[in-house]
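INFO batch 0412 | record 1 of 1 | parsing
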Amino acid sequence: MDVLGDWITTDLEFTNDTRWRQRLDELVDFQKAEHHLPSRRHFKSKHEDVLGIWWQTQVSNRNRGTMPAWRLEAMNEAFPGWAQ
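INFO prediction complete | emitting tokens
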């Protein structure tokens, strides 16, 4: 265990990070299938609404500077230029 040092996460952190990665994958799949990002106002399905809320949350976290670096990197890789 000493090898891991400070890199130890709680079960909740692991669950939240796993869910976050799943949502990112869902957003990538949505964008590829629909050729646009989900709309929060004019959504066509409950899933698009959920993804739209998630997307807005990520933008808000980025703007406030509260997004962990690894999540910012993942978003930049999946959606180049999203942070501009």
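INFO post-check: Residues 1 and 8 are 9 Å apart (CA to CA).
INFO record closed
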